Amino acid sequence: MKEKILKKILSKYQTESILFTNVKETSYLTGAEFDGFWLLNAKDNTHIICSKMIENQIMEYFGKQNIRMHTESPLYKTVVKILKQDKINSLLINPKYMNAADFILINENLSHEKINLIKKTGVLDSLRIIKGTVEVENLKKACQIVSEVCNTVKEELKPGLSEIDIHYRVIELFAKNRVTESFIPIIASGANSANPHHRSSNRKIIENDIVMMDIGCMYNGYCSDLTRTYFLDKINDKQKKIWNIVKSSQNAVLKEIKAGLPLSWADKTARNIIEAAGYKDKFIHTTGHGVGIEIHEMPLLAPNAEGVFLTHMAVTVEPGIYIEGEFGVRIEDTILIKENGCEMLTSAVY
Predict the structure, then answer these.
(1) Where are the alpha helices (DSSP H) in the chain?
(2) CA 235 to chain centre
(3) CA distance 93 to 105
(4) Model confidence over 200-213: pLDDT tens digits?
């Protein structure tokens, strides 16, 4: 239980209690990777609120930790009951992670008891943005596995395989490594590669084809993210030119990125190279994002991003060019920001 973080949040927002209802939040704070419970911290007491269905699971996981467990339903009524008994005047929640029905009910019931509901998004974002030692090790392992899977699949690419065939081969290899996918694999071939978030189809690979693979896995609750664009056999001059532009764009960021640089610097650096090559309107997304217990976390590597890179941020660098009706190229790696540079966490062949 990350009790120091809980205290820091309570102090920052000047409130006596905070409620977490989403598995991403509870997993980050407790390490428990299963859902079905809410975590309430009130006046330095930690409450686990759950249904009877997972009572045993909670007891097995938390063991002798100093928590108070409640199994009365519905969960929102238990929260209100605890706050009322402890004479607490305010509760902080992150509405982004609470479903609409629970939000409405807890808001109405707290209002009835004259307890102030403080609604803030991104409550944990600024804390999750810097990865601790164990988190970095989990990220490295996730990135190692996805890189090995990518290398294996690359060697198996051949005409006749469909995007769906490759899609399920990726999932099969993840399963052999005892990990799950961190998002639905994107396997895009031919003209489909011009769609950044293409859904794997029955299209079969042909000779001299292009195959984009955007894949990631989750190890101990931490995600990896990797994209490679491969060509089968012959590559024409236009495809080669575009691939080189995208790789140069990524290299420019990877070569110079380090703690202290503005977050917006990464996107501007990558985008300048693509724009100078004449493909300004073909780079249609931001240059990257944070990675952690969610596949998309803060910070965002966008042109208008505020703040600076900090040591032990884990981010992706993924420029791309997409030519509708022809093909697309995206190259993505996950990296760890260091004081004087970065550490590459993904390592699949290009």
Answers:
(1) 3-12, 23-30, 55-62, 75-85, 100-112, 125-128, 133-156, 163-176, 237-256, 263-276
(2) 33
(3) 13
(4) 999 999 999 999 99
